[in-house]
Amino acid sequence: MTTSHLLPTPPEKEEAIYGAWERFVRGENEISGVRPEVALSWQRSRDQYQVDPFLAEAPAAVSDVTHSLEHDVVFSELGFRAAAMVNEVAGLSGVITIADANGRILSEWGDKETHRMGAEAGLAPWRCWSERAVGTNGMGTALENPRAVVVRRQEHWCQAFHDWSCAAAAVRDAVTKAPIAVLNISCWRRELPASTTTWLRNVTTHTQSMLRTRARDGGAELLAVFHHERSHTPAPLAAVDTAGRVVVADEAAAVLLGVPAEAAAVDPAVRWNPQLPELIRAAKYATERAGHDPDWAGSTQICTHLADDPTPVCIRPVFQYGNLVGHLVTFTESDDEQLPGEAPRPAATPPAAGGNGGQPHRVIGQRENRMVLMPGESVMLAETEGNDVWLTTDQGRLQAAATSLDKLDYELSALGFLRVHRRYVVNLNRVQEVERRDKGELFLVMDDPKATMVPVSRRNTRAVRQALGI
Hints:
alpha+beta; Beta-Lactamase; CATH 2.40.50.1020; 3 domains; 7-stranded antiparallel beta sheet; 26% strand
């Protein structure tokens, strides 16, 4: 990281941002001149987290700490990288911090005077810098975003931090996409070098690569355990990762889950979201329990679209070298611990347009300087374009507030949305026609006036056919 090519903010722009902040704090929604990632963070700070913009310092972090051993490895890796940059960061009169997924600062290094100034604002170990705690800031906002973020002075939600500039990037679990840790550099009344975000990206990318390799190894272990188990049980069988995504399923289980049969997905980037939200919730609960008790096994009942009565499911954790990598799911009765949950409800597939069991699901988009809140049925599809996610809706094409297509796929799967291509998630209720080309390629024709056509990738073709019943 070099100290050249600073990123100065012209005084007139600082005044414009501060004016937008004042109006937004008062309750107005005009955010002209504010970067999209900052505007979305302000919206979360004010409307979702209800953070006091006149908070004087970051609050103390709670002492209850729960994370896996793999997270400790990430903290150590980031600490090693940060320690190597201490002198350079101190030369900028800056400090470098590492925080966990809850925004709790674990370590801090750098310039002593800046450290002293930061301590007065709570920029110190065991203070909490999540967006929920203090609103828009480098660490908290990076935990909410898939990319490195820069938060300059007046862009901070709390007025007390308007003298600070921060840049941060988060490391995320390769399977669940949940944040594990965040690396941050802060300066007081001084701009950060343009190279700061490049260095942060390089460090987090290296760490993410290490996690992806381990996740692929975990997928291979799940596949091996699946093949061993299927020779011992006649019941429908699947292997899912810690987030509930399907690594592999046999013919019978694939029909129940709405995924292709025998299509092994060792790489976490290509695993399948089962079309049974109850199973995803059960798998996540199992992940939490097995993380504390390796001998745990559980069972529950879930509703599928193939039967009027709930289907019994047995879930058993799979470990590799002592690390939890996923679960075997067997559709059969079991005497294992019953998972908690509500009484089973009848399932519909796909959900009817217009709702989520009577509970409207809001999808947030952005048009110029305003947030647009829409019911799920008004969204036809979502697609990635570079690092952004865009929505095709009844109100036109809008940038999504969701930070990734994976996240949007998970959030909307219960409303009849399906990942049909690495670039597209489609609302199946808005599919009007299906076109088959000469070489067997499928295209979905949407019900908008333009009859938008969406390609279906070969690996997703079977799941689309099953979901649409064709």
